[in-house]
Amino acid sequence: MTKVVLTYRMQHDWNVNPFLKEYQKLLQRAIDEIWENTTWREKRVKHRYSLGRKNYRYYTTTRLIPYFPQSNEFKRELRDELLREWPFAKHYVDSAIKTAYSILKSWRKNYLKGKRRRAKPVVKRKFIRVKTTLMKVKGSKIRVTIKPREEYLELDFSKEWFYERVKDWNVGELIIREDDVLLTFSKEVEFSGRIKISIDSNLTSLDIFHPEKGWIRVDLSELHRIAETYDRIIDMLKSVQRKAPKRIGVLLKKYWTRRRNRIEDYLNKLAVQLSREFPDAVFVFEDLDKFKMLQNGSRKFNRKLSRATWKKIVGKLSYRVPIEFVNPAYTSSTCPVCGSKLESRNGLVECFNCGFGADRQFVGAFNVFMRGLGVALSGAERDDLLSDEPGGELSVMRPKSVVRVDLNGRRFTHAHS
Q: Per-residue pLDDT tens for 44-58?
């Protein structure tokens, strides 16, 4: 059994702005208290920089590593401190402490990667995380306690578009914002009979291997065109920002917002259309670390790689279909016939041991599929390969079908089959 969690947004007309402000202050106080009691310890860390041609120079530095207080005694004292003068239900304090630790752990992870400075996180967004202990659910009606026996919020999602999809599901935590509320629903689902399909994530495509349909390529060139177009505009504005910093700053914010919104729209439609194209499949992805890949590439490659949205695709898809991850090591450089190392040439790979040759992205997708089945990449029988794989000759190989995201529809547009 696998637990599937779905999240939907619903508008509300509650006057919760004062409550949101109080919770924001509470959450910041929790972060402040944890931060003040954080222990910093020195640790020697090894770094390197490229000298070109895969040569590196190594050096070490001393970094301060944060360790947050985790004892039950500290958490009890923190709870008692936050409860003073808190006029609402006590469970909101527990929610704020849990959220504060979550924010700080996320900051620590990025700090250790060099993506954040040693500065305390500040809560800027107004939201309230509502635990299930603060809710009473009866059918499609939910009552949220603000002050016990005094003040409540009520909502009914029976008229929302997603009602039929989740009417038999369990209601989870809510997140209240100024104009809407995020509802989460969960259900235990049996996926044992589902087909597994693998996805090899590349810069401008997702290459899918389906055990019945073969190799399918999802063309993402439009996604990268959108990002590249706005990046050029933003770079141009940055180059002249000194001449009129205030006016250019407004333009930069506008184009950053447009860039984000257009990419989010594309990714949402990609996730919907992928889930509709393969409704009964378990999606197997490589567990990629883009940050490590950025350290080894050229400046031009890193700029292209920074536009890749692999984790966002997986995140949006995970609300709709079951996801599994496999180790990405050597999936594009291991021969699926004999298990030897493949040599790459112009997007094709060739095995000098057995003579097998194919498109590099197809081999990557096929090997991810094998690893998703729990099979080691030590070679497969040639007769077990699908008919669209070449019989050993090194030649250009095409996917059985190429699909593109339809920005005006609900299913992929098939470029060719």
A: 888 777 777 768 888
